[in-house]
């Protein structure tokens, strides 16, 4: 093909495999993109190639990502590469694109024009209210389990009428609750996250002309993180592609780590069956990590059977060996990590360039204590997100109720917040009326305040309704940020949280003011038929669960390995590498579960750019239990030549007679300490009182122990002089 445009800007700085993917013919393509191999670059340059070289209209391209941040980055990079605006390009998350589709075709989707999106917390609250209305015991029928069941069925594309109870009375009740939940949502015009995807799929499935219209429009489909798609997402894409669409999907089966939330790595294998002519391109050159780190990752993941197969490599240096530290216990592990972090910081490195990764959130507590004591700032990545904070959800509920009086979830959240004398009994009366008359709580409130409630309660309800009406009148015609600012003050939320003189109250006030800033920076879609407020509320619901508020500070990053996906750091610690913790105990006996745990380890290893430490503890107190574990089997899968054991083994007896192992997971001799102490043992000292042995080092006359005394704190004592009574 003779190109009429200069392709140099699009193809420069691409390696051979990236160039092959970007310039692939107009046919289904599966790009297996290893960690750090430039998958985003390939997607961006593919879009630019189709538009600038192949002459594709931007309107014919649909690009799907898994986060709004990734969508914004892709859009910005395409604009930069083409030097032209692509504002109307359909780039977004599955949920964002489904929402856009349903807003355009609300009638065909059998939705009210002003349908409201509810996030996970609102959904859970609705389920709790449903159980109460049906007088069902929520200790037996746990709301979170019902929520999980409903979302799981929707993710598989199943409505209540599609389900069979198989003669199981418990399943029959779950299906009945799913049906009741559906009816409540339909009556209130409420759409949860899973419903967005299912309803968008049904929209195309049940409207042949509409589906054909979008098939003609979106001839090329670009999909990021393809290994993370769930059943309904893949079905939606497959339906849109039909026999004529050209999907270009990028993913890595070795980084599929979200099976617990519905992701199906099998979709990578199924893609080649659904599109038999699909071209497969592998991106194996890594631009992130040293050769040693990549060789370790390759060796670990090679133990998985179900994979496409690839081998990461780099033109960079071999780099340092992987340091493995065998700690006595979790405190010793934390002390070691913090000492290495201090060395890193003292060498002039940024704290934010270091990360401590762990399998379980519970592991962070000891690390956080140590960092606080060491005066090292840190951030728990993936903590409570901005739009999920209680005070933000309170403000959004006021805004929703101002815009849509029939929003029951918002009504219940704020009817007595700040407190205004509307108690649980009054709310129960309103619920009963709403249920009996098949109406919303807003309408029920007006009716019972006039006819059924006593004077004080009636006055309180009337006052609340008048407040909402008055605020709605006051904000009419104001700019979006002025509406938000007015509501957080007029509702009483600012004054309410100011009464809490502690740091928590101050933080909540600051967060509410930040919501005004968020509204100020929000850019409504000029083509949208929604009001700016409704568009902002939808944006807030879609952003919930997406990412933390931007408050960057140079701090050490703490996070689970799941949270670390997509990130990279020059210095990384993988903490708690013990069998039973990582891989997790529940996955060890399950071949599929164990393979996913190994993929998670692969993700953890490949977050490291230059320096990687792997630590484990011989004894760990977690969830109130003392555990004595073997090193993770994943350590033993790393070749010896890539490992450096940091600390010489110390002669300490263990509480059970198991073979001692080196930090690489290999058997080593371990004679007991002749003085007979062991980690975790309780002791008594004449001066310091009762305590627990945390640490031991040395042997013979020079053996020392670290004891955490209940009243005197932590002390190092020479065993031969300490006169400890063993308990």
Structural class by helix and strand composition:
alpha/beta
Portion of residues within helices = 40-55%
Second rung of CATH, namely the architecture of the largest domain: 3-Layer(aba) Sandwich
| Spatial separation of the terminal alpha carbons | 83 Å
Low-confidence stretches: 545-552, 648-674
CATH topology name of the largest domain: Rossmann fold
What is the number of helices?
29
Round the Cα radius of gyration to an integer and report it. Answer: 29 Å
Strand order across the largest sheet:
11-12-10-13-14-9-17
- Measured by DSSP, the beta-strand proportion falls in 5-15%
The coarse overall form would be globular
**How many domains is the backbone divided into?**
5
Average pLDDT over all residues = 87
- The tally of beta strands, per DSSP, is 22
Q: What is the CATH first-level class name of the largest domain?
A: Alpha Beta
The name of the CATH superfamily of the largest domain reads P-loop containing nucleotide triphosphate hydrolases
Mind summarizing the main beta sheet? 7 strands, parallel
Lay out the secondary structure.
Elements: H1 8-11, H2 16-22, E1 29-33, H3 39-53, E2 61-65, H4 68-82, E3 90-93, H5 94-104, E4 116-117, H6 120-133, H7 143-155, H8 169-188, E5 190-191, H9 193-205, H10 208-217, E6 220-223, H11 231-241, E7 246-251, H12 266-274, E8 279-283, H13 291-301, E9 322-327, H14 330-346, E10 354-358, H15 364-374, E11 378-380, H16 390-403, H17 408-414, H18 424-437, H19 441-451, H20 455-475, H21 480-490, H22 493-498, H23 503-521, H24 532-543, E12 556-560, H25 561-564, E13 569-574, H26 585-588, H27 591-605, E14 608-617, E15 619-622, E16 625-628, H28 633-636, E17 643-645, E18 682-685, E19 689-697, E20 704-709, E21 713-718, H29 719-722, E22 725-726
Parallel strand pairs: 1-7, 1-8, 2-3, 2-6, 4-5, 6-7, 9-14, 9-17, 10-12, 10-13, 11-12, 13-14
Antiparallel strand pairs: 15-16, 18-19, 18-22, 19-20, 20-21
